[in-house]
Automatic annotation (TrEMBL):
Domain Carrier, residue spans: 1-78
Name the UniProt record assigns to this protein: Carrier domain-containing protein
Pfam families cross-referenced by the UniProt entry: PP-binding
Length: 82
């Protein structure tokens, strides 16, 4: 499964919105799909799914604004790890 599909499925599971209805560029927090507590769940699931550690200083809007930004962030983290 591609990173795009994995991240979309994780967000869909947390928001209870079907993956097909989620848009990659929708701001997850401005549209109130997730709260700050939802972010913690998202981070935990991303860490588990991709076997990585997300540091507290990385919990910024630029990394988690949308599915697209999360995908870019995960891509960068995986590249750093290899």
């Amino acid at each position: 499964m591609k990173i795009t599909e994995q991240v979309t499925m994780i967000v869909a599971g947390l928001t209870r919105i079907p993956a097909g209805e989620l848009h990659l560029d929708t701001d997850i927090f401005e549209s109130r799909l997730l709260t700050s507590l939802g972010l913690l769940d998202l981070v935990a699931r991303l860490e588990q799914e991709f076997k990585l550690i997300i540091l507290p200083e990385e919990l910024i809007h630029e990394h988690f604004a949308s599915i697209a930004t999360i995908i870019g962030f995960i891509d960068n983290k995986l590249a750093e790890a290899s």
